[in-house]
Design a protein that fits this description.
Elements lengths: L3 E4 L8 H16 L9 H17 L5 H16 L7 H14 L5 H10 L5 E5 L4 H10 L9 E2 L12 H11 L6 E5 L2 H10 L3 E5 L12 H4 L2 E4 L5 H8 L1 H6 L12 E2 L11
Parallel strand pairs: 1-2, 1-4, 2-3, 4-5, 5-6
Antiparallel strand pairs: 6-7
The protein binds magnesium ion.
Magnesium ion binds next to loops.
């Protein structure tokens, strides 16, 4: 029986790519007007996130230090003068980033569709609580999702460590089998939770191609969707009790979801 849905935040409920695209270009423009490579800055910034976030996840550096490393590399790759105070420069970058914060349109829709059905609706994100909760407040979802779980409240364990998911289930007072995790990163939000007994729903907004195999037992606990509006349909298939308690609503597209039988995509951002 499904009792809780945990949503990833970045690129699941919150449109991180859009905010990064705006911030990388507009911050670069502010320090180097007319820079010829400004159109390349969004992809570069996302690439540097993937390069530097793992060191923080592994406990090798602080959250602030991985930000400094990102900005230092960004300036180096763009041929920009290195700011004398990287923390101050990063704070400037955040002003641009926060100016473009927005939810995906289907985020509120799916929460509306699931609310009132007796399910706990929460968040499980690898980010830091102060920033992630600020995002949720800005996009109007903070009061509708509880709890908001981060590694800070899970013993410092990040997705995709098994301990992260197990502690999240324990925080909810549930068995892993009673929890569904939904997110854009196949490894962090679907394969990882499926390995501990949760059901993982991979939100594949951009039609990525799964590249490598997952063992059959794990893949049997993974579904893939292209939009959050497909989630109620997945839940009705997984749990007949949910189907009885929560009849189809306007956002559901039952039958559209697909199982991931041989899955694991190119690593995407946490
Ligand atoms: Mg994500």
């Amino acid at each position: 029986m499904i009792r809780a849905i945990l949503f990833d935040l970045d690129e699941t409920l919150f449109d991180h790519r859009r905010a990064v695209a705006y911030a990388a270009a507009s911050w670069t423009e502010s320090v180097s007007p007319g820079h010829p490579l400004v159109m390349e800055t969004p992809a570069l910034w996302l690439d540097l996130e993937n390069r530097h976030l793992p060191a923080w996840h592994a406990g090798e550096c602080s959250f602030a230090e991985q930000r400094r490393r990102r900005l230092r590399d960004f300036c180096g790759r763009m041929g920009l003068r290195l700011p004398p105070d990287l923390d101050a420069a990063y704070a400037d970058f955040l002003v641009h980033y926060e100016a473009a914060w927005a939810a995906f349109p289907d985020a509120a829709e799916v929460i509306d569709a699931l609310a009132g059905g007796g399910l706990t609706l929460g968040v499980l994100t690898n980010g830091v609580p102060v920033q992630q909760e600020a995002k949720l407040r800005r996009i109007g979802l903070m009061d509708r999702l509880d709890p908001v779980l981060t590694p800070d409240s899970l013993g410092g364990n990040f997705k995709p460590s098994a301990e992260c998911y197990l502690r999240a289930a324990a925080k909810l007072g549930l068995r892993p089998q009673e929890v569904v995790l939904v997110g854009d990163n196949l490894q962090l939000d679907a394969v990882g939770p499926a390995k501990v007994g949760m059901h993982g729903v991979w939100l594949d907004r951009y039609g990525s191609s799964p590249a490598s195999a997952v063992d059959p037992e794990t893949s049997s606990r993974i579904s893939a969707i292209r939009s959050l509006n497909e989630l109620p349909g997945v839940l009705r298939v997984l749990d007949p009790g949910f189907a009885a308690a929560a009849p189809p609503r306007r956002t559901a597209r039952a039958g559209q979801a697909r199982r991931v039988s041989a899955a694991a995509a190119t690593r995407r951002r946490a």
